[in-house]
Amino acid sequence: MAQKKQKALRDTLDNALDVSYYLNNLHGVLPVISPITEPAVGYGAAVAGLYFIPKKDTARKGFKMPDIAGVAGGLTENKTWFAGGGYIGFWNKDRIRYRGMAGYGEINMKYYGKGGGILDEHPIDFTINSFFFLQQALFRIGKTRFLLGGKYQLGLAKVTLFKDAEWDFINPREKELTNSGLGIIAEYESLNNIFSPSKGLRVNFTYDQFLEFIGSDLQFGRLSMFGLYYHPITSFWTAGFRMETRMAIGDPPFYMMPFVYLRGVPAMRYQGELTALVETEQEFSLTKRWSVVGFGGYGHAYASLDDLSKYAPAWNAGGGFRYLLARLFGLKMGLDVARGPEQWAVYVVFGSSWMK
């Protein structure tokens, strides 16, 4: 039994540690124990279990992307905690891509406002207790790489501030809200792998509208667009590029305003009605299993759509390494060290650092 288990965790090609057979043939659960190093919530740990569900005709017609079910939970030093689960499905020969998740958390963070002012130097400490629910499906257009679909999302949020006087900076109506919205999604995707791609393009446009007639306390919208491009320069060098922009429409609650998301930059540190960023990641293979990466990015958070001359800049730079953990899936794991405008941060990477 021990010998079979050992073989299940070894690749038949190079006898290296590899969980492909364990996940795809033995229906194994991949346990993931990861430190949390997000600067916005402090150090902590997360535990997850991912169950890979292979397609029934995999052996007869070649490898097909399995469905993935998972549960996760985490706790950090500032008493932030969360728990939840989800399912990602690739159905009907990848003509339908489904995503569903639900979770609850108590998140302790800082609110810096929308750039400048007293909050930039003296942020507000707040706690948000939130339940989140998502149902999303994308449908392939014929045999093309274009997908269209939609989603429904529900958030039940209760905000507590450490000092009552600080409600002067936040609308009191945002103390307790139901945010219920519908979204439309258009996507083009030609990546050679969904976990750790090394070639191809993914472009996504999403518009979310939160509506009172489906239970939302507020009516507002969010528009987002991102693009990811990977290009193999040589047999050992892969260049990756990312661009992303998000825009608030109407008056969303402060915790749903767009923010610049870069490694090394705390979540919600640079918020505004409009955000835009670019980032590059260069990966260099040392062996068939091991590689090193270097990355850097730059972004802006614009406080108001009415005056784009006022913005808060943010940047990041760093590096790390990757190990090909599941060759059949193209799944890599690794570690990144990043520096932002104010501090350092460490990230455990599962798949791509740009996975969405």
CATH class, named Mainly Beta
- Strand percentage: over 45%
Please compute the radius of gyration using only Cα atoms. 21 Å
Strand count = 16
Tally of individual helices = 4
Distance separating the two termini: 38 Å
Helix content percent band: under 10%
CATH architecture: Beta Barrel
CATH topology (level 3) name = Porin
Strands of the biggest beta sheet: in what spatial order?
1-2-3-4-5-6-7-8-9-10-11-12-13-14-15-16
Q: Give helix and strand order, one letter per element, not per position.
A: HHEEHEEEHEEEEEEEEEEE
Overall body shape:
globular
Oligomer: single chain
Largest sheet features: 16 strands, antiparallel
Query: What structural category do the secondary elements indicate?
Result: mainly beta
Number of domain units: 1
Mean pLDDT score: 92
CATH superfamily: membrane protein fhac: a member of the omp85/tpsb transporter family
Could you describe the 3D structure shown?
The chain is mainly beta. Strand 12 and strand 13 form a beta hairpin. The two termini are 38 Å apart. The protein has one domain: Porin, CATH 2.40.160. It has 4 helices and 16 strands.
Give me some keywords for this one.
356 residues; mainly beta; globular; 16-stranded antiparallel sheet; Porin; 16 strands
